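## Example pair
The file below holds two records. Each record gives the amino-acid sequence first, followed by its C-alpha cell line.
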Amino acid sequence: MVGAQTFDAEDPLALERQVCFALSIAARGVVGIYRPLLEPMGLTHPQYLVMLALWQRAPLSVKELSRLLVLDPGTLSPLLKRLEAIGYLRRDRDGADERLLAVTLTEEGLALRERALLIPPAVVERLGMDLPELQRLHQALTQVIEAAKP
C-alpha cells in the first residue's frame, strides 16, 4: 500500500500507546453501557450525572451544579431545561439571593432515585470487573483528572 507504514510497539506516537486514545475509547464504551439502562428513565448520560449530583446535594444553585459537574453554564442550561420539561426538577430564583437560580428535585425526580439504584450494580456486572478493581481505576482516573487541571 502506498504511504502505509508500520510502527513498532516502542514508537512514542503509536496510537495504541496513547493515554488519550485509551481514555476516549473507554469513555465511549462505558457511556454505551449506561445508555440502555438510562433510556427507560428518559435520561441521557449527561442528564444522569446532573441527577446524581442533585440526589446527593439538592438544592443547588446552577453555579454550584456547574462546578460539581465541571460543565460550563451554557452546556448545563439545556440539560436542566430538558430535565425540568420532563418533570424531574425545578429551577427557581433563590430566596436568599434573587440573582441565583436554585435547582431542586420534584417528587418525581426524587422517586427516580429508587430506579437509579439498579444502575451501578448493572454497570459493574456488565464491565466484568470486581469492585476493588473498579475502585483502583476510579482512583487512578481521579489522579489523571487532577493532574490535567489547568
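Second record, same layout:
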Amino acid sequence: MSDVPGAPADLLRSLTRAERLLSRRLGAVLADDALTIEAWRVLCLLADGQGHPMSEVSAEASLPPGTLTKLVDQLVDRNLVFRRIDPMDRRRIRAYLTARGRREHARLDERVRASLAELGISQTVALDAPQAAGLIGALDDLIDRLDPARRATPATRLADSTPAGITAGQR
C-alpha cells in the first residue's frame, strides 16, 4: 500500500484485514448458535461476573446505545443476560450473565479457542505464545493511546475478553 514499510497506511490496512478475517472465522463458529460477533463481545465483557452499566457495554462493544439495547433484549429473550438497576446509582442499569449465559459463554469459549488453536494461536497465550501475548499487549496499548476515555476509565476492558475469547488472566 505504501512505498515505506511500516507506514501508517500499512498499519491500518493490516489491522483492518486481520480484524475482518478473524471476525469472519469466529462468526462462522458462533453462527451454529445463532450468535453474532457483537453478541459474543457482550457475553465476553459480562463473563467477569461484575455486571456492567449499559453505557459501558455500549462503549466497549463499539455499538450505539439503541443497537446495544436491541441486542441485549435478544440475549435476555434467550435467557443469556439479565438487567438490574445499579444499587449504587439507581439511574443506571447493569447487565449480567445468567447462569445459562455463563454456561453458554464457557462452551462457546472452548469452541472459539479450538478454532484459534487451528491457526496456531495457543489456548494459553501467556505460556505458549509470547508473540501473541505481545501482540495483544501492543494492541491494548494502541487502543489506550487512541481512546483517552478508555485510558481514564478503570473499567474492565473488552480487550481483556476479546472476541478471540482470550482473557486477561491468560495473558
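Notes on the second record: Confidence is low (pLDDT under 50) at residues 124-128, 154-171. The radius of gyration is 17 Å.
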